Amino acid sequence: xxxxxxxxxxxxxxxxxxxxxxxxxxxxxxxxxxxxxxxxxxxxxxxxxxxxxxxxxxxxxxxxxxxxxxxxxxxxxxxxxxxxxxxxxxxxxxxxxxxxxxxxxxxxxxxxxxxxxxxxxxxxxxx
Length: 127
Ligand code: AMP
Hints:
single chain; five-stranded antiparallel sheet; 24% helix; binds adenosine monophosphate
């Protein structure tokens, strides 16, 4: 695979402690923090600490330990935020990738949005 990771992206700077973030959860391989421009009452970003550009890059090249840690962090933070679809009211998981996905920050991240009904997926997709 030929992904090139830009270590000057904003999430790399957050991981190096060069710019602040509002951390919700930190584990060995994963960081969860609040999105700076929330699109819903709950809007957090889950990122691996390793240098992966997109979900497919992470899924193909991350270690089993990183993948397990990331997914367990997602589960834990959904419990913490109360957005599980069983006892909570659910949420949306989004990961934008590349040009067509309109990815702004080239470090893999999973958006978790909740706290209100979000409308149909891609309903207002544009640009
Ligand atoms: P995407 O289009 O999926 O790449 O979205 C990138 C997300 O990162 C957007 O929702 C931004 O609001 C968010 N973002 C950008 N800079 C920061 C930052 N310094 N701290 C937290 N979230 C950020």
